[in-house]
């Protein structure tokens, strides 16, 4: 009896796993364009879409001028535009918008690549983060979120938050993990906010706590250094002390002349009274 129950349980588990695998094998993507054609000159099945191209896959949407799809079913997508625009919404409702001259996307692995002048804008209800570079490698599958590595000469980081001075930073490489919502700047990091500058080996921005932290290198090199600059501005109104110090002193000759004038006036009044 126990053996039969065990067999029934194993059979049920196997059926559920089979159903899960079957469901995972079928994914839906959709392509829209003004016109398209089949390029029969290619050995691999190739379809070209042109003008007002919109590609949708899961939470990601790509807008392009031209898109080439190679391979049966889930294949390779190559998009070109001026620029190509990618829009992604994560489970928290935060958005990632990417602009690049061209991108390639592997439908099965979720791997995305772009080169050229690249701008990434990540927006939430509390802040806006703009990232600029020239080489992007991203994936929307490996961490259940949109994760990427961006490099440039240098890579730029611009953060705008309500009621805060804009923060700008540059680094060799930038890494973003969509799962824990953290962005890291790595190598020759230099951050500026207002009149202060901070240099470090590593800088981390936590998109959940809105906290920025800087760290030295793992070998103890490139310590965190912060410099502050300010300029003293002269006061519009002089203080009582300044006025007293700047007052002209009364000379001895002035006092003497004042005394002689007083004595002369007294003598004159006395003579008038005698007459």
Question: What this model shows, in words?
Answer:
This protein has 275 residues and is an alpha+beta fold. It has one domain. Helices cover 20% and strands 51% of the residues. It is built from 3 helices and 14 strands. It has helices at 2-25, 240-246, 252-274; strands at residues 29-32, 35-38, 46-57, 60-70, 76-89, 95-106, 111-123, 128-139, 147-160, 167-177, 182-193, 196-206, 211-215, 225-228. Strands 1, 2, 3, 4, 5, 6, 7, 8, 9, 10, 11, 12, 13 and 14 form a 14-stranded antiparallel sheet that branches. A hairpin with a 5-residue loop joins strand 5 (76-89) and strand 6. The longest helix has 24 residues, at 2-25. The radius of gyration is 37 Å and the shape is elongated. The model is unreliable at 1-25 (pLDDT under 50).
Strand content: over 45%
Basic shape: elongated
Query: How many domains would you count in the coordinates?
Result: 1
Distance between the termini: 152 Å
Discrete helix count: 3
Q: What profile does the largest beta sheet have?
A: 14 strands, antiparallel
Radius of gyration: 37 Å
Number of strands: 14
Question: What's the helical proportion of residues?
Answer: 10-25%
**pLDDT under 50 segments (min length 5)?**
1-25
Reading the helices and strands in chain order gives: HEEEEEEEEEEEEEEHH
- Category from helices, strands and their pairing: alpha+beta
- Summarize model confidence as the mean pLDDT: 78
């Amino acid at each position: 009896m126990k053996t039969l129950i065990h067999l029934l349980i194993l059979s049920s588990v196997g059926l559920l796993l089979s159903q899960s695998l079957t469901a995972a094998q079928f994914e839906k993507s959709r392509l829209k364009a003004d016109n398209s054609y089949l390029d029969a000159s290619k050995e691999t099945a190739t379809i070209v879409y042109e003008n007002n191209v919109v590609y949708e896959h899961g939470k990601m949407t790509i807008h392009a001028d031209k898109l080439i799809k190679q391979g049966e079913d889930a294949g390779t997508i190559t998009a070109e535009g001026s620029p190509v625009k990618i829009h992604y919404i994560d489970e928290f409702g935060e958005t990632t918008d990417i602009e690049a001259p061209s991108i390639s996307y592997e439908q099965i692995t979720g791997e995305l690549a772009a080169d050229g002048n690249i701008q990434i804008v990540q927006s939430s209800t509390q802040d806006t983060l703009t990232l600029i570079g020239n080489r992007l490698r991203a994936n929307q599958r490996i961490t259940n979120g949109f994760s990427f590595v961006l490099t440039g000469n240098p890579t730029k980081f611009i953060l705008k938050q309500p009621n805060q001075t804009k923060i700008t930073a540059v680094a060799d490489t930038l890494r973003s993990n969509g799962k824990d919502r953290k962005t890291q700047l790595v190598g020759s990091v230099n951050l500026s906010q207002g009149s202060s500058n901070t240099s470090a080996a590593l800088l981390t921005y936590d998109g959940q706590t809105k906290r920025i932290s800087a760290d030295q290198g793992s070998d103890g090199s490139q310590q965190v250094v912060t410099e502050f600059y300010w300029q003293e501005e002269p006061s519009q109104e002089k203080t009582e002390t300044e006025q007293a110090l700047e007052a002209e002193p009364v000379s001895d000759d002035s006092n003497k002349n004042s005394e002689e004038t007083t004595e002369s006036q007294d003598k004159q009044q006395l003579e008038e009274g005698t007459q």
